[in-house]
Amino acid sequence: MRLKLVPEQTSVNFLGSWRYTFSISMLLMVLSAIAFFSIGLNFGIDFRGGTSIRTEARQPVDVAAYRSAIGTLSVGDIAISEVFDPTYGPERNVAMIRIQAQDGDEAMTPEILAQVELALQEVDATLQFTSVESVGPKVSGELVQSAILAVVAALAAVLFYIWLRFEWQFALGAVAALVHDIVLTIGLFSVLQIRFDLAIIAALLTIVGYSLNDTVVVFDRIRENLIKYKKRDILDVMNLSLNETLSRTVITSLTTLLALGSLFVLGGDVIRGFVFAMIWGVVVGTWSSVFVAAVVVKWLGVKRDWSKNDSDKGGTQFATGD
Amino acid sequence: MLQIPLWKRALVILICLSALAFSLPNLFYERVERHNDAVALMELGQDGADLRADRALWPEWAPSYLVNLGLDLRGGAHLLAEVHVSDVYADRIDGLWPEVRDRLRDERAVVGNVRRMPSDDAAVLRVAVSNPAGIDRALEVVRELARPMQTLTGIGARDLEVRREGDEIVVTLSEAERLATDDRTMRQSLEIIRRRVDEVGTREPTIQRQGADRILIQVPGIGSAAELKDLIGTTARLTFHPVIRQTSDGDTVPGPREVIYPSMDDPGVYYVLEQTPVVTGEQLVDAQPDFDQNSRPAVSFRFNPAGGRAFGLYTAENIGSPFAIVLDGEVISAPVIQSHIPGGSGIITGRFTVEESTQLAILLRAGALPAEMTFLEERTIGPELGQDSIDAGKIAAIVAMGAVLLFMILSYGFFGLIANIALMLNVAMIFALLSLIGATLTLPGIAGIVLTIGMAVDANVLVFERIREEMRTARGPARAIQLGYEKALSAILDANITTFITAAILFTLGSGPVRGFAVTLGLGIITSVFTALFVTRLMVVFWFERRRPKTIEI
Prior knowledge:
The complex is a heterodimer of chains A (322) and B (554). With 322 residues, chain A is an alpha+beta fold. Chain A folds into two domains: 18-43 and 140-305, Multidrug efflux transporter AcrB transmembrane fold (Up-down Bundle); 50-135, 2-Layer Sandwich (Alpha-Beta Plaits). Chain A has ten helices and six strands. Chain A has helices at 18-38, 45-48, 63-71, 110-123, 137-165, 168-192, 198-228, 234-244, 246-266, 272-300, and strands at 42-43, 50-57, 78-83, 93-99, 128-135, 195-196. Chain A starts with 17 loop residues before the first helix and ends in a 22-residue tail after the last helix. Chain B is of the alpha+beta class and 554 residues long. Chain B folds into three domains: 6-23 and 384-547, Multidrug efflux transporter AcrB transmembrane domain (Multidrug efflux transporter AcrB transmembrane fold); 87-179; 236-353, 2-Layer Sandwich (Gyrase A, domain 2). Chain B has helices at residues 6-23, 29-43, 49-55, 71-74, 87-106, 108-111, 135-143, 175-200, 225-233, 305-317, 354-366, 383-412, 414-436, 443-473, 476-509, 513-547, and strands spanning 68-69, 76-83, 114-117, 125-129, 160-165, 168-173, 206-210, 214-220, 238-247, 258-262, 270-274, 279-280, 284-291, 297-303, 323-327, 330-333, 345-349, 373-381, 440-441. In chain B, a hairpin with a 5-residue loop joins β13 and β14. Chains A and B meet through α4, β5, α5, α7 and α9 of A and α9, β18, α12, α14 and α15 of B.
C-alpha cells in the first residue's frame, strides 16, 4: 500500500488568513530581535577569542573542582559545562572548558596551557584533553566580519539571480523570507544560548539555501499558473500553486528532516548545535516560503501578462527542450 | 517519445560505473592508505618485506584515490601564524651600512668623516658627515646606491629613499621595496616552515599563505599544537659576533652599534657584542648533530665559500679574542679563537642533550626564519575524538540513508526504488569526486553529505509529483513521464542553482570547517541534479521499454 501523506487533490486556503500568519511571522521576528539585543548570542571562541578545552575522564565531571583548579591560575573568565551524549557510557565523562581571551593578539601561550592542563590533571588523573583550541582576539574579529560578509553576499547573489529569472517582486519576496529565517534562527539561538560559532554560520547559509530551494519551487509554480490562468485572482492562483506543490513540499521536508534527525541523535555532540540550526531552518524555511515569500509577492503585486516574449523585461525561462 | 540516443545512454552508464570504481577505495580506507604509503616509499627507493606486504593489500590496477580526512577527523594540530614582516627592514638597512660607509670614505675630501648615528627606528639608517658643506655631495653618492626596481605600477621606482634631515642623511626602504620585501619574506618563511615540517616527516601537511602576512599550518597526526610550535616557532637565526666584553650586569647599557645578549646556559652571564655579525646562519650549507673531543653532543656546520672566506679572514685577524655564537638572541658559547680557521667548517659546543643537538641541526639545516612569528590561532584535535566523529558520522549517515530509502519506497513504490538507486549512486559520486580532486572531508563535510542525502531526493520528488499530475490529464504514461521531466526541469534548475550559489559563496568567503561543508554541499548539488535528470530518467526509460505498461502507478 502506497503511503500518501497528502491527498491527491487538496484545496487548502493557505493564504486565506495571510494577515494572521504574516503577523505571527512579524511578531516572531520582533521577539527574536528583542532576544538578540537583550540576551545576546552565546558566541564561541571563533568569534570572541579565547581557549576551549575538551576533556574526557573516567570519573564523573566535577565542575566546581575544575573551576577552582583553574581559578588559581588567574587566567580570567572561565566557563565549564558538561557534555551529554546518549552514546557515552558511564566511563566517558566529557566537559568543555572555555577560558577568555588573554591579552594581546596571540592565542594562549603553551606555558599557560600546560599549567592549566597540569592543574586539571591534579583534580582527576584520568583526564585527557581530546581537543584544545585557542583563537586570538585579532583573528576572531576578522572571523565575525567575514561571516557577516558571507551572509550578506549570499543574500545579494540570490536577490540578483531571482530578479534575473523571475521579477523583482519575487526577488524581494524570496529575500524577505530568507531574512525572516535568519532572524528567527538567531533569535532561537539567543533564547536557548546554544554556542554560536563558525559552523553555525555554515548552517545559516544552508538554511538560506534550503529555504530558497523551497521558495523557488513555489515561485516556479506560481509563475506557471499565472501564465495559465490569466484572469483568475492572484490569491487564487497562489493558493492553487501552493496546493499543487504541497505534496512535494511535505515529502522533501520530511526526507531532509529524517536525515538531519538521525544526524542530530547519532552524529555526536560536536556537530549537534550545527544540526539543530539546520533542523530549525528546514521548519522555518518551509513556513516562510508560503507565509512570507508568497505574501510579500502578493503585496507588491505582480504583472499578470507573461504571455509575450519577455526577454526585454528581465524574466527568462530555461528552455524546456526535447 | 521517450527516446534517449545510444551514446547518451552509454555515457551516463559509464559515468555511473566510474563513480562506483573511484569511490570504492574509500570503503577500504586503511588498506588503501597503507598501500599508497608503501608505493610512495618504494618509489623513493626503499624496500622491504613489510612494504611489499603493504603494497599487496590493494591491487595495482585498481583506483587508489582516497578522500583526505580533515584535522577534525584524523586528529592533529592547526596553527595560524602571523609573520612580522617589518622585522626584515631593519636587517636590510643594517646590511646597507658598510656599503654606504665605503662609498662616503672614497669622498672623504669633500664630505669629511662619516659616522653612523643612533636611530629610534631600526628600519632607518642615519648618517652624519663632519663637513656640512659636503652634505649635498654625500646625498648624491648615497643615492647612487639605490637600484631601480621592476614593478607593475611604479615606473622608475627605486628600492631606497634617501633624504636630508638637518645635518643627517636618512636612508629608508621605499614603499615599493617594502612590499617586495614583504612578499619575499613570506615566501621564505613558507619555504622554511615546509622544510622543517618535512624534516620531521609527517603525512600530508598543509602549509598555506593566507592574506598578506599570515601562514596556515595544518599537520595531521602530530600530538599537539605546542609540539608543532616548538618546531616552527623558533626563528633559529644563528649569528657569529665579535665579543666586546663579558658582564654579570644585565642592565648594562650597550654603546652605539653594540648589543647585550644573555648566555643560554649560565644565568647571570651577559655578553656585550658588536651588533653587526661577522657571518650568519644564512651562509651555512650544512649542519649535523655531532660530538666534540670530550664526546659531548655538539653541532658541526659548514659555510658556503663566501661565508667561509669571511669566517677565515676574521679568525686569522683576531687570534686570542673571544667570539660569540648567538642563536635567537642568546649566546650559546663564546670561545676564544685559538687559531686561524680556514675551510669554513666548525663545531658549536654548548650544554646540549643529544635531542637538542639533533633539533638544532634540523633547524639550522632548514634555515632561519627571516622574521619572527606570533600565533593567532591554534587548535589540537586528539585522534580519539576524530575517530569518534568518524564513527558517529558513519552511523548517522547509514541510518539517514536507511530512513530515506524506506520513506521513498513507501511513498512512490517502484519509482521510489529507482530514486533510491540514484541516491546511492549520488553518494558514490560525491565520494568519487572528493577523492579525485583531493578535497578534504571534515566533520561539517559529513553533515553536508547527510544533508545532501535528504535533499537529493528533492529533484526526483519534483519529477515524480509532476508525473503524477500529468497522469491525470495526459494521454498515456509515456507522455506523462516525458512531460513530468520537462515541466519539472525549470523548478529543479532554479532551486539547485540558487542553492549552489550559496555553496559557492560559502566556499570563497568561508574558512576551515565552513569550506569543507561548502565543498560537499556544492558537489552534492551537482551530482543530485545529474542523477535526477539523467540517471533516473535512463532507468525509467529502460524499464518502460521492456514493460510497455498501459498505465503506471506512482
